[in-house]
Amino acid sequence: MGPTKFSKIPNRINLQIFEYNGSALVAMVGKNCFAIASDRRLGVQLQTVATDFQKIYKIHDKLLIGLAGLATDAQTLYQRLAFRHKLYHLREEMDMKPETFASLVSAILYEKRFGPYFCQPVIAGLGDDDKPFICTMDSIGAKELAKDFVVAGTASESLYGACESMFKPDMEPEELFERISQALLSSVDRDCLSGWGGHVYLVTPTEVTERILKGRMD
To answer: Any transmembrane segments, and where (predicted)?
Structure first.
């Protein structure tokens, strides 16, 4: 196998690409519901460029994906995923199940393993019998499944600690919203590359609720 376009770049520089724009993503499950939340900052390292940047995208009413990492790659990857889901919907005349979509994301990322999208996806959806499904994966598509919560982005270390403290099984939607919001806001305060409020989607079998959180603006 010949050299790739990244073969001469030190590993540390590759890691810095994931930290270039800054991000915080978390998905958490409740009783027949789930919530997914992100911060709203778009930065160029320590310089803030925008404070209303979208990092969570709706695939359909019961399936969302959050993309942490390099913002340009995230937008490109979402466009490819939305296109593939539309093709699936036209052919099968049904929405894609979360497990199927996770496999699609993994396959698309692995296709580009020698020149990857610098993204870490967080996938959350309601599957059969409205059972919540969440997972994350690395930039080449290695899946990590969970039954409680998953995190991604530059604030992931503090998110792990906050979610471990906040999570409890079988939460009702409003309690789930409160806990994921507190976990997100407390975590981004400890990460200088993410912050400027939060964006939360709360999904139940009957509705999708979108809310904006106000946080520290510094």
So the answer is: none
Q: How many Cβ atoms are within 10 Å of 166's Cβ, its own excluded?
A: 20
Counted residue by residue, the chain has a size of 218
Q: What residue type is 44 in one-letter code?
A: V
Q: Fill in the DSSP letter of residue 129.
A: G
Q: Which distant-in-sequence residues (6+ apart) come within 8 Å of 109 by Cβ?
A: 77, 116, 117, 119, 121, 137, 139, 140, 141
Contact 120, 18 (CB under 8 A): yes
154-181: per-residue pLDDT in tens? 988 999 999 999 999 989 999 999 999 9
The label of the residue with tokens 């979610």 reads: 163
Sheet containing strand 198-203, edge to edge, reads 149-153, 24-29, 34-39, 198-203, 208-213
Contact 139, 119 (CB under 8 A): yes
For 193-210, how does the pLDDT look when each residue is reduced to its tens digit (9 = 90+)? 888 889 999 999 999 999
Cα–Cα separations (whole angstroms), residue 117 to 75, 78, 120, 121? 10, 11, 9, 10
Homologous superfamily (CATH) for 11-206: Aminohydrolase, N-terminal nucleophile (Ntn) domain (3.60.20.10)
Q: What's the pTM?
A: 0.87
